[in-house]
Structure formats: C-alpha cells, structure tokens
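Slide 14.
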Amino acid sequence: MKKIFISLTVIAGFALSVNAQDGSQTDKGSWLIEANTGFGGDGIAAHSANTGFGLASTGDSTIWNIGAEGGYFLADDLAIKAGLGYADFDGTTVFSYKLGAKYYVISTIPVQLDITGASIQDSTEDPLWLGLQGGYAIFLTDHISVEPGLRYNLSLNEDFSDDGIFEFRIGFALFF
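Slide 15: predicted structure.
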C-alpha cells in the first residue's frame, strides 16, 4: 500500500509540474483549435456524428472519421465551440457538426456540454446527441495541451438510436 501511495504522489507531482501554466491560454479573447480521438461505443451509432479522428470496424464494415473543433473564449475559462467532421462508412458519406460550450475549472479541468448531429447520405433518420464531457488538460507548453477525458452522448433522436454512448477520449488542443 505504501508503494502505491508513493507512486501516486510522484505521478501527481509530475502532472502538476508539467501542467504549470499561467492560465492565459484560457483568458477572455483567446482561441483554441482541437482534435479528438474517441474510444468506445459500438457500431455506426458510436461514430455517426463525430468531429474528431476515428477508425472502427464492426464485422465486415469499417468507418473512418476526420474533423476538428474550434472555439473562442467569451470569458476567462469559458469558450463557445463549433466543430465539423467528415466520415465514410463503407461508401456512405456522413457530415457531422457540433455546437457547444467548454469551461475550464481552475483553468485545467475542461467540462463540455454540446449538441452533436450528422447528415447521413441516403438516410431517413439522422442522429442528434447531447454530449457531456470532462477531463484534465495537461499543458505541454503555453500553447499546447493534451486532454484525456470521458464523454457520454445521450441520443436525442430515438428513431435513429435510443442508446447512449460512453467514450474515452484524448484531445489535443492549440491555444492562441
């Protein structure tokens, strides 16, 4: 038990020292650009409205995504965000969008609430999700962070899917 406690203390100290920053990255008037990867969910519903990078296979089907998000800090630590994405699901085209807000608690703990949707080629129903995401921003430099976190997508379109999706995410953000 003592070894575990010492190991956790060393890891926490390292994380705090790497994350030493002045907070100006999230000041009012700053911008951010981010790309995310997501792990979790199952099948097309999990990746049908994605504004990040992804690659998944289910049986003989493969889906890949590419996208990015950008934001503007309306107030210290509070950014309004938008994102766009493109996906291919075995020849079916998917265009995704995201609108939301991201708040950095004590300038290092990002919490995000957003609406994510998609337009799927030849589909009678398109997905719409309410997303809640939280994590921890590890600032590698004054302008770059890595943000591991957890995300839950609640389906707002029961005709498309009534299942929620839980994901582990790793985000990469640029601040300027």
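Speaker note: The first helix runs from residue 2 to 18.
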